[in-house]
Amino acid sequence: MEWHWPKNLEELTRLLREEGALIHAGGTAIREERIKSAVHVIDMSCLPLNYVKKQDGVWHIGATAVLNDVIDVFEGAQVEHLLVKALKNTATTPLRNRITVGGSVFLSPLWSNLMGPLLALDAEVEVVGKLNGTHKYEDLLSKKAEFHGSAIREVKFSDKNIIHYFDRFARTTTDYSAFTVTIALAVEKDVVDDAKIIVTGCKKIYERLNQAEAKVIGKKLKELTPGDIFENVNVEFADKPAGSGAYLTEVSKVFLCRGLEALGCAR
Ligand SMILES: Cc1cc2nc3c(=O)[nH]c(=O)nc-3n(C[C@H](O)[C@H](O)[C@H](O)COP(=O)(O)OP(=O)(O)OC[C@H]3O[C@@H](n4cnc5c(N)ncnc54)[C@H](O)[C@@H]3O)c2cc1C
C-alpha cells in the first residue's frame, strides 16, 4: 500500500483514477483493516481545501476544514447559526479538531449531525474525479454508490435569513446521535414564507416532512400549533441503543413539537 499527499486538484484527480484508492481525511471513521487493504491511500491534508468563507452571499466550506474551523468562523459571523448548534453537539473537542467536513459529508452516517442542517440549507457539493462538477447534497445521499471514484472538494450553500431549531437525541453528550431534528423557517413580517423540517437517523436515513411544512407555510409564527401540525407524523426508526424504534418515534415527535413551539415564541 502506498500513501499519497496530493498538493493540488490535478494530482488528486489523477490519483482517484487508480484502482484500489482510498481517501483519508480525518481518519476517524476508517478502520485499520480498510487502510491495510487499500492499494493507494490518498491523504487530503496537503490540499488547499482548509477554508470556510463567504463570497457574494454564498458560504464555501473546503473539504479539509475540520468541524471546529466551521464552528469558529460561523460563531464569528453569526453566533446562532444552525451549523454552530449542530456541530458543537458532535463528538468531543479533540475529535472535532480531526473530523473534516468532506469526510462527514461523504460518509453522511445515520448519526450525522450535519445532514439535517445541510438539507435544510439546500447545500450543494463540488466534486472532482469521476463525477466532476456541482451536485445537490440530496443527490449524494440518494446515489452514494455513484460518487465512488470522486472526491468532495467543497460544500456550499446560500447565506439564508432563517430562524431555526436543531436538536439531537443521544444517551450522553458524546454519544452518537440516535436522531436529529432540524426546523428552518424563512419568515417575512411574522409570516412563514418557507419551511424545511427534517428528521435524520430514521429507517429512511432522513425524512423531510413535506405535509407538516405545507401546514406551516403562510401561517403567522404565533399561530403555529405544533400538536395539530405534527398530529399524523410518525417517523419510523429501527431499534437502537438509545431506545426501541417505537420509543424513538414518540421522542422525535416531542422534539418536533418542542422545536416549533420554540420558534413560535421566537418573536
Ligand atoms: C466517538 C465518535 C462519536 C461521533 N459522533 C458523531 C455524531 O454524533 N454526529 C456526527 O455527525 N458525527 C459523529 N462522529 C463523526 C463521524 O462518525 C465520522 O467519524 C466522521 O464524520 C468522519 O470524518 P473524517 O474526516 O474523519 O473522515 P474519514 O474517516 O477520513 O473518511 C470517512 C469516509 O469518507 C471518505 N472521504 C473522506 N473525505 C472525503 C472527501 N473529501 N471526498 C470523498 N470521500 C471522502 C473516506 O474514504 C471514508 O470512506 C463521531 C465520531 C466518533 C469517533
Individual helix count: 11
Q: Just give the CATH class of the largest domain.
A: Alpha Beta
**What is the number of beta strands?**
12
Please give the oligomerization state of what you see.
Answer: single chain
Instruction: Give the CA-CA distance, first to last residue.
Output: 58 Å
The assigned CATH architecture of the largest domain is 2-Layer Sandwich
The share of residues in helices is 25-40%
Rounded average pLDDT: 95
Structural class from helices and strands? alpha+beta
Low-pLDDT parts are none
Instruction: Name the hetero compounds present.
Output: flavin-adenine dinucleotide
Biggest sheet features = 5 strands, antiparallel
Proportion in β-strands: 25-35%
Total domains, how many? 3
- Outline type: globular
- The rounded Rg comes to 19 Å
Widest β-sheet, arrangement of strands: 4-5-8-6-7
Q: What is the chain-wise order of helices and strands?
A: EHEHEEEHHHHHEEHEEEEEHHH
Kindly identify the CATH topology of the largest domain: Uridine Diphospho-n-acetylenolpyruvylglucosamine Reductase, domain 3
How is this fold's topology laid out?
Elements: E1 2-4, H1 9-16, E2 21-24, H2 32-37, E3 40-43, E4 52-55, E5 58-62, H3 67-77, H4 82-88, H5 93-96, H6 101-107, H7 115-120, E6 124-129, E7 133-136, H8 137-142, E8 150-158, E9 163-169, E10 179-188, E11 191-202, E12 205-208, H9 210-216, H10 226-229, H11 245-264
Parallel strand pairs: 1-3, 2-3
Antiparallel strand pairs: 4-5, 5-8, 6-7, 6-8, 9-10, 10-11, 11-12
The protein binds flavin-adenine dinucleotide.
